[in-house]
Write a structure and sequence with these properties.
Layout (H helix, E strand, L loop, with lengths): L10 E8 L8 E8 L5 H11 L3 E8 L2 E7 L4 E2 L3 H13 L9 E5 L2 E8 L2 E7 L4 E2 L6 H5 L5 E4 L3 E5 L3 H6 L4 H4 L6 E7 L6 E7 L4 E4 L6 H12 L3 E6 L5 E8 L2 E6 L1 E9 L2
Parallel strand pairs: 2-3, 4-6, 11-12, 13-15
Antiparallel strand pairs: 1-2, 1-18, 3-4, 4-5, 6-7, 7-8, 8-17, 9-10, 10-11, 12-13, 13-14, 15-16, 16-17
């Protein structure tokens, strides 16, 4: 007698910790490599079920891979850690040769991932942050004194006094959710070997705090380049899980380098 399990084609989902070389740190992403187009509603349901900050859906399309990212509540325009995880999965499963680049077509245009020894390099668009007045009540929502306030294409970028303030920050997530942005980046100078540190809060997209946010560094890199006078930097996101991002600012493009570890493989049977 045929079981329900046998009656469907199982879809493999691979869990990867990104921007780390240690399991159970960095930022977890789920990666689904699809063999056909699927319904957008189905992708959103899967992302909600997995409940990671992002779930990536990858599909081969001629000379590139179509790549989409979903938080538990919405589709997002740009995601670094789930792109890094997707490239890692394609290489680790043999769908791409280890020395072959991964070309992704996304809502933010064509993105490129390359292996650089033990690291993965992502070629992303720079998203400069312009100085703006601090939104009303934001200091209260963050429970911190704001040094300077900026706005990128996606996020508010808020400079705070020092690394200790960032690490100990306990914002009011309910109040942060009122601001009509993808997320709120908080940042300060780092201590050796890190040039700067950050955290990222995105309750508007269903993620109270994102552990390590690659795309935020497309704004952070340019922000700190102008202050530190250097284009090649080492950054640390000081969330509870923590993660490391190497950042290289090259004008309109920003290179993000990180590592990745596969932690789980499972099968979706519905």
């Amino acid at each position: 007698m045929q079981s329900d399990y046998d009656a469907v084609m199982a879809q493999q989902i691979i869990m990867v910790d990104a921007f780390t070389d240690q399991p159970f740190t960095g930022n977890p992403a789920a990666v689904c490599v699809l063999d056909r187009e699927v319904d957008e509603r189905w992708m959103q349901q899967i992302a909600r079920e997995i409940n990671y900050a992002e779930t990536a859906f990858v599909r081969k399309a001629e000379d590139h891979y179509a790549l989409r990212w979903f938080s538990p509540t919405v589709e997002v325009d740009l995601c670094g850690h789930a792109t890094l995880a997707s490239a890692h999965v394609l290489w680790q499963t043999g769908q791409l040769a280890m020395d072959a680049p991964a070309h992704f077509e996304t809502r933010s245009g064509r993105l490129l991932a390359m292996r650089r020894g033990d690291w993965i390099e992502l070629d992303f668009p720079t998203t400069p942050a312009s100085s703006v007045p601090a939104p009303a009540g934001l200091g209260t929502a963050l429970n911190a004194e704001i040094v300077s306030s900026h706005r990128s294409r996606f996020d508010l970028l808020i400079e705070l006094a020092d690394e200790g303030t960032i690490a100990q920050l306990q914002p009011d997530i309910g109040k942060l959710k009122r601001y009509p942005v993808r997320g709120v980046i908080v940042t300060a100078p780092g201590s050796s070997p890190y040039d700067f540190v950050s955290r990222f809060f995105a309750p508007q997209t269903g993620v109270d705090e994102d552990p390590v946010t690659g795309s935020a560094h497309c704004a952070l890199g340019e922000f700190w380049q102008s202050r530190l006078g250097k284009s090649d930097m080492l950054a640390r996101q000081v969330s509870a899980r923590g993660g490391t991002v190497r950042v290289q600012v090259k004008g309109e493009r920003t290179l993000l380098l990180g590592q990745a570890v596969t932690t789980m493989r499972c099968e979706l049977i519905v």
